[in-house]
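ok trying this again, last paste got cut off
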Amino acid sequence: MLTEDNQKYWRPDTPAFADYYYHVIQVNTSTFDQYSFTINSSIQICAFMYTSEFDPTNPCSNRWFYDCSGTNGEVRFRNFFESRRNYVLVITTFSANVTGEFTIIISGPGLVELTPSPLNTISPPPSKSKNIQIHLFIRHLLDS
C-alpha cells in the first residue's frame, strides 16, 4: 500500500526538488529465464528495476532498466532474470506528489518470489507463484 506514509525520493530525469512516492518490492526468480511484468494503473506510472539494491539517495546506482511509458496507465517489460539473484522493483508515479492504485502481473517459466519492503503498515507475506498478481492501493492526494 502506497500512502502519504511512504517515503518520497527524487526520481532521475525529473526537476530538482520534486518528490515522488515510491514502493519497493524485492524480486527473486527460481529459474534463469525470461519473465514478463505488466503494471496497470489508473494513473501514469514508472517502474524501475535494480540489481542487488535500491538506494533512494542515489537512484541511478544499480539501475538495470526502467519504463516510464505508463501514460496510458500500463507499463510492460520483459527481460531475462538470473536465478537466486536479488532484484528490486521500484514503482513510482510519473508526476510528483500523486498517488493512485495499480496492479502488478508477473509471468514466466519459474517461481517468482515478491517481498514488499517493510513500511509503517502491515505488508503481505512473500508470494511464490508462476503467475502473480499483486494489488497495491494508494490514494490520490487532493490539492488544498
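PB: full thing came through this time. The longest strand covers residues 102-116.
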